[in-house]
Amino acid sequence: MIHTVTRRIAIDAGHRVMTHGSKCRHLHGHRYAIEATCAASRLHDCGEQTDMVLDFGFLKEEMLTLIAAPCDHGFIIALADTELLDALAPLDGAPETWRQRLATVVREDGYCATLEGRLGTRLYVVPFQPTAERLARHWFERLAPMVRARSDALAVLTSVTVWETPNSRADYVE
User: How many helices (H) and strands (E) does the chain have?
Assistant: First the structure.
């Protein structure tokens, strides 16, 4: 028997898919809903998570820290989208130098969250097109170790779902 729990958060963020052949290549935004599902073959038998897979509050806290804090009311941008990055680059200094700094962080961490842009808005730079499919996998990979740690290795993250609209979602299941 497997027990599962799912937590949902929502964020507002802009993006564009620069290689898209239609309207998604333009700057636009979504009210994303992100769901994380965790599973365990048994429940905790003692401590503050007794009879739980993982405390919903722990899962919410990790999702807010790893997803909402750097992305909500910001722009999620592909590192390869140099036109958009240049338009948002700080006014002091060369845009290429700034993009190189971003690229270094993205290479090391898999993303770069910054407020350095000329508008002072949140920018979340990723090494892929910011599609719902890729975001689901990216956030899965960031959340999975936290779920394991917060559940004392009892639970595993099994999927992340990214709803781009009320009718369109992408799932990453491991």
Answer: 5, 7
**What string of DSSP letters covers 132-171?**
HHHHHHHHHHHHHHHHHHHTTTS-EEEEEEEEEETTEEEE
Q: Helix 56-63 vs helix 132-150: angle between axes, to the nearest 10 degrees?
A: 130
Confidence category of residue 92, pLDDT binned at 50, 70, 90? confident
Q: The tokens of 93 are what?
A: 């200094």
Q: 143, 62 in Cβ contact below 8 A? A: yes
- Topology, domain 3-21+34-173: Tetrahydropterin Synthase; Chain A (3.30.479)
d(CA 154, CA 137): 22
Mean pLDDT lowest for which of 34-38, 41-45, 76-80, 137-141? 41-45
Would you kindly state where each structural domain of the chain is located, as residue ranges?
A: 3-21+34-173
| pLDDT score of 134 | 98
- Closest C-alpha among 53, 52, 60 to residue 11: 60
Tens-digit pLDDT profile for residues 115-156: 999 899 999 999 999 999 999 999 999 999 999 998 989 999
Q: Helix, strand or coil for residue 86?
A: helix
Hey, what are 10's tokens?
């929502």
